[in-house]
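Reviewer 2 asked us to include a model.

Predict the structure of this chain.
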Amino acid sequence: MELERDLKQDIRFQQGFEQATAVFEGLAKEWRAIERGIAGLPDDDLSEADRGKLQLWQQVNIHLSEHEFAFSMAYEGGPEGLKRYLRGTANGHVKNFGVNDWRTALFRGLAVCDPFCNGGFVKALGIISSSEALAPPVAAI
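Predicted model (structure tokens):
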């Protein structure tokens, strides 16, 4: 009975990990589509599939931006500090949204994504430093 429960849990984790991988791959594709102008089209011009993909992209973007400050704070403990935060948040998402929810899968996937945890989150989220935010604007030439 316990082996069966553990096996089901492993399968759910694997499904979540696969879902996170698919989300990452999808994000890269969607970003390219957005850059090509798909986001600028009126909703009527988007296929239902494209509209769904765009909505997922927007949800992921919003969700990650809500954690921007926490990512920066956790990263003060280095990549391992950020990984601990991501794993802890994923565990919280399991309680709140379920093991197979996209938010759970996303944070589990990010926790094992070395480029993200080694500081790539700064570029991915477009985080600017406080000195950049306080710098005077550059005059247009």
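Residues 130-135 have pLDDT under 50 and may be disordered. The chain is about 75% helix and 0% strand. We have added this to the supplementary material.
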